[in-house]
Amino acid sequence: MSGLIDWDVALRSAKGLCPAPPSVTRAEADEVVGQLYRDAERAGGLVAELTSLREPPVTARTRVVDRPGWVEVNVAGLRNVMGPLVDQLAEANATGPLAERLGGRATGLQAGAVLGVLSAKVLGQFEFFDRADGQLLLVAPNVVAVQRQLAVEPADFRLWVCLHEVTHRVQFTAVPWLREHMLAEVTALSASVSTDQEESWARVRGALGELVSAARGRGEATGLLAALATEEQRAVLERVTAFMSLIEGHAEYVMNAVSPTVIPTRKLIGDRFGARRRRGGNPLDRLLRRLLGLDAKTLQYVQGASFVRAVINRVGLDGFNAVWTSPATLPSTDEIAAPAAWVARVHG
Predict the structure, then answer these.
(1) What is this structure's pTM?
(2) d(CA 122, CA 60)
(3) Angle between helices 154-174 and 231-257 (to 10 degrees)
(4) What was the pLDDT predicted at 217?
C-alpha cells in the first residue's frame, strides 16, 4: 500500500522547492555539461591508477542533470528501497485508511521538503537504488554555483568533483558485494521498525525535542533519523555510519591525492572547499544541516579520509585494499577513529 508515503506528492513538492539555478547563458550551460561528461570519462583512468581497484567494463549510466532531474532519480530510488518498510507497516495495520491517506500526503510533503533542500547541495552522486547497474549523477547547476562561490578555476573544479563521484562508481562496481551489503543494512533497518503506535509516538516526541535543540543551536548534529531510531536501529545506523565514512573518506582521499600536473589548483580548491564546509551557511542553512544530519556527514568525510591516509601510510595501498575483501574487513566506527586497531585486526 503505497499510500503510507505519497511519492507523487514528494516529487511535486521537492521540484517546487528546488532553488533557482545560477544564471548562465545557453553556451555556458552547454560547455559545462559537455565538460562534465568528458571529465567523468577521464576520471575513470585516474581513479584506477590512484586506487588499484579493477573496475569491470562500465555499464553504469552517466547523467549530467539539473536539480529537478536529481530529485526525480532520488524519488524513484527511495520508492524502491523503502518499499519493504511500507509493505511491513501496511500488513501490520499500523494505520487506518483515512490516517493512511492523510499520513501519506504528510510524509510525502516531508520527503519532498528534504529532497528540495538537498537538490541545491549535492554536487554528484552514484545512485544504485533505482538501477541495479547504478548511475553516475553530476548536478551541473550546483557545480557551477559552488565553483563561483569558491572563485576557483572552473575546469580544475569540474574534474576534481568528477574524481570524487567516479571513485564511488569504481567502489561499487569493482567491489560488487558493496551494493548488496548496503541493501542488506537497509533491510535490517526495515525489519527492526516497530509497528507499536505508542512506541512510535514516543520516538516522534523525542525527535521533536531534537528539532527544538537544533533550532536553539544545542545538542548533537545527529539528525532526525537517529532521534527516531530504536536501540536496535541505532546499531544498524552505527554500522552504516562506519561504512559511509569509509567510502566517502576513500573518495575524499582520491580527489586530493591526484597529481598537481593533472589538477594544478587542486590544493587551493581543497583548502577553499574545506573552509566552506566548516563555515556552513546562513543560520537557516545551518539549522537544516543539523536537522538532516549533514553536519554528521561532513564529519564522515573528515574522519574517513584520515582513516584511509593513516592505513595507507602504515601498510601501503595494497594493505588498505584488504578493506574491500568482505563485510568482515570493513572498519567499525571505533576503528575509523583508531586506524591502528583496524590494521591490527585485519593484518595482525
Answers:
(1) 0.83
(2) 19
(3) 130
(4) 46
